[in-house]
Design brief:
Elements lengths: L1 E3 L5 E4 L1 H7 L3 H4 L13 H12 L4 E9 L5 E12 L5 E10 L1 H23 L3 E5 L5 E4 L1 H7 L3 H4 L13 H14 L3 E8 L5 E12 L5 E10 L1 H35 L4 H23 L5 E2 H8 L9 E5 L3 E3 L1 H21 L8 E9 L8 E9 L12 H14 L2 E5 L6 E6 L4 E4 L1
Parallel strand pairs: 12-14
Antiparallel strand pairs: 1-2, 1-5, 3-4, 4-5, 6-7, 6-10, 8-9, 9-10, 11-13, 13-18, 14-15, 15-17, 16-17
Length: about 425
């Protein structure tokens, strides 16, 4: 606190002023406050004293003053007139505070805001933030550049106006479900650009939670996936074309087999069955875009031809998917086992039953889980081991061993065929 006469002569200088400016009271009392002003602010004191002379209180303002060591100080000051009992202005009271920490904090806030805006407006995604109830209160510049809209029309749920009418109801419903559950939201939909054209976006939003776990905000992004969708469609069409041509080639191979061995009906029939098994595998892989194949789907598709068999079929196992090559090899083995069972085993008679099961071998142990599968027949005609082995045995046993590094056992107890396969984790894509 500084007290001075109306001409600026200092008459009071407290301990806080000593700490702030570096001068003791003895050094400053009797001097003018102008001694604390830098050269470019000499007129400031005259203006303040003139306003005080009019009885005006000069509210808090930011300025600079000189420290005893010559450095400039950022100061926040308030100046008020001091009146005697008759109301005459006889002096001036000044309160000064060190504004350096405040200004530094403001600088950091502006810098952080600038950096945030630089990041938010430079990323390729459309970005936005919403309140806990889902009302959006901020978009990045990318959003406005793409949609050609402004904040007044977009705040809250205004974004619905740029959604495709065929999708907006579905999108809104899923968005509200995620808000209610307070869990991550993800969806894919088209958004209209300022040119009137729609582009497809993959959109995600994550809840930002406070220390108590409650949602404070939602942060979301929209990523343009139009080109990826178009490329995926082109790939799908190409795969379908390859599949079509491959099936035509298989049909030619079948025709050649019939002409080559017209008198060996059994050979031609078995050959055609195996070709059909290859075609089924190919259909599955094309439909799955040559990625993962769920085991249940593989078994059901490969064994559709035994649905009307006299014997019954039971499937049991968790949700797990195989890599394409594993699906091919195991699918052929299952088809061969089913063909044999339909002719000579449990599927050939009423009361017969085949159980096919699979599991994550070693799941829960320290090492990675592998894949295991079994085939069990019961209730069919008495079984005897074949006198000789042929290509069918190779499909069931030898090829899985070579192609998948699998352990395979094939046994022929009297009550029914038993087949076991055990592979490493490298054949598995995912587990549900």
């Amino acid at each position: 606190m500084v007290a001075k006469q109306i001409d600026g002569t200092i008459i009071g200088w407290n301990a806080a002023a000593e700490r702030l400016f570096g001068y003791s009271a003895g050094e400053m009392i009797g001097r003018s406050t102008r001694d604390l002003l830098p050269d470019d602010l000499l007129d400031e004191e005259d203006n303040i004293l003139a306003r005080i002379g009019q009885g005006e209180v000069v509210g808090q303002f930011l300025t600079k003053r000189l420290h005893k060591d010559g450095t400039l100080l950022d100061i926040s000051a308030t100046v008020s007139p001091v009146c005697d009992s008759q109301g005459k202005i006889v002096g001036v009271s000044k309160i000064a505070r060190n504004a350096g920490p405040y200004l530094e904090n403001q600088r950091r806030i502006r810098e952080a805001d600038l950096r945030f805006r630089m990041m938010a407006d430079s990323i390729s995604q459309l970005a936005w933030m919403a309140n806990p109830d889902g009302n959006i209160f901020w978009y990045n510049q990318r959003w406005y550049d793409y949609t050609g809209t402004d904040f007044d029309t977009m705040q809250g749920f205004g974004w619905q106006t740029v959604h495709h009418p065929d999708h907006v109801e579905r999108v809104t419903a899923r968005y509200r479900e995620s808000l209610a559950a307070k869990e991550r939201w993800e969806d894919t939909f088209p958004l209209r650009g300022k040119d009137g054209q729609y582009r497809w976006y993959l959109s995600r939003a994550l809840p930002v939670r406070g220390e108590d776990g409650e949602v404070l905000y939602w942060f979301g992004t929209n990523t343009d996936i139009t080109e990826q969708r178009e490329q995926a469609e082109q790939i799908r069409v190409l795969l379908m074309e390859v599949n079509h041509r491959s099936k035509n080639m298989l049909a030619i191979v079948q025709a050649l087999a019939r002409r080559t061995a017209p008198d060996d009906v059994g050979f031609v029939a078995r050959f055609e069955e195996r070709v059909r098994s290859l075609a089924v595998n190919q259909d599955i892989l094309v439909r799955r875009e040559w990625r993962d194949v769920p085991v249940l789907e593989l078994v059901q598709q490969q064994l559709r031809f035994v649905e009307t068999a006299p014997g019954g079929l039971m499937l049991e196992g968790p949700t797990v998917s195989l890599k394409p090559r594993a699906a091919e090899v195991i699918g052929m083995a299952l088809h061969e086992l089913a063909t044999n069972s339909l002719k000579h085993g449990a599927l050939s008679c009423d009361g017969g039953k085949v159980t096919i099961g699979w599991d994550m071998r070693g799941a829960g142990n320290d090492g990675p889980a592998g894949f295991s599968m079994f085939w069990r027949e019961e209730g069919g005609p008495p079984v005897a081991a074949p006198q000789r082995t042929g290509f069918g045995t190779s499909l069931i046993s030898d090829i899985p061993k070579r192609s998948l590094s699998a352990e395979v056992t094939l046994e022929y107890p009297r009550e029914g065929v038993r087949w076991d396969l055990s592979c490493g984790p490298e054949v598995i894509v995912g587990q549900g």
